[in-house]
Amino acid sequence: MTRILHGAAAALSLLIAGSALAAESPAVGLPAPDFRLQDQTGKWHELAGYRGKWVVLYFYPKDNTPGCTTQACEFRDNIFAYRELGAAILGVSVDDVDSHKAFSDEYNLPFPILADAEKKTTAAYGTLTKYVGVVELARRDTFIIDPQGKVAKHYVKVDPKGHSEAVIADLRQLVAAANKT
Questions:
Q1: What DSSP character marks residue 23?
Q2: Residues tagged active-site
Q3: Which of 21, 22, 114, 169 has the maximum number of C-beta atoms within 10 A of its C-beta?
Q4: Is 20 helix (H, G, I), strand (E, B) or coil?
Q5: Who contacts 111 (Cβ-Cβ below 8 Å, separation ≥6)?
Q6: How far is CA 119 from CA 34, 78, 149, in A?
Q7: Which residues contact 134 (CB under 8 A, 6 or more apart)?
Q8: 7: pLDDT confidence band, cut at 50, 70 and 90?
Q9: What's residue 15's pLDDT?
């Protein structure tokens, strides 16, 4: 009986973990794919509109889930550090604008969270993942995009707890290196 339960638990873990769909993520040093998506207020955002700024573009599976809430709130709590570095934070999931509005309002998120209900941007960044064999959601990945629009760093399948601190540390190094040139 115990062996059966362990086997069932292992199979369930594989289903829940998800499997990536076809597209590959853009490599460090290459241009980040452009996008045009609405935020929680209905305002449109394009990556090209952020040229000249550092961008932290983070993908997350679902509004109002424990890990996604932890991640969003840590970015929120560190917003002043990002602003000091001249970086914009943009969150992306496949949830719609209304879901993002409720999520943003509940947790007082001071940055745009973008609705990719058509899943095109999530796919272009290689983060579209199939969970439980049927549900397509964003994998929890983060990209730091430099002021020229190129991928400077890519974090894959991040742990939401403490992730914002790691991004700030790496962003500080990237900004310092860019300022030396």
A1: P
A2: 68
A3: 114
A4: strand
A5: 75, 76, 79, 88, 89, 90, 91
A6: 14, 28, 21
A7: none
A8: very low
A9: 40
- What pTM value is reported for the model? 0.86
* Residue-wise burial string across 97-128, b where 16 or more C-beta atoms lie within 10 A, e elsewhere: bebbbebbeeeebebbbbbbeebebbbbbbbb
Structure tokens that stand for 178 in this block: 């860019």
112: CB partners within 8 A, 6+ apart: 39, 40, 43, 45, 89, 90, 91
With b for 16 or more beta-carbon neighbours within 10 A and e for fewer, the 28-61 pattern comes to: eeeebbebebbbbeeeebebeebeeebbbbbbbb
> Measured at the alpha carbon of residue 55, what is the angle toward residues 128 and 60, in degrees to the nearest 5?
30
Tokens of 77: 């709590």
Q: How many residues does the chain have?
A: 181
At 75, is the secondary structure helix, strand, or coil?
A: helix
Over residues 22-39, the pLDDT tens digits come to 468 888 999 999 999 999
Q: How far apart are CA 106 and CA 41, in angstroms?
A: 14
| Of 15, 37, 51, 13, the residue nearest 125 (C-alpha) | 37
Q: Mind spelling out the 3-state secondary structure of 39-62?
A: CCCCCEEEHHHHCCCEEEEEECCC
Using only C-alpha atoms, the chain has a radius of gyration, in whole angstroms, of 17
CATH 3.40.50.720 holds for 20-180? no
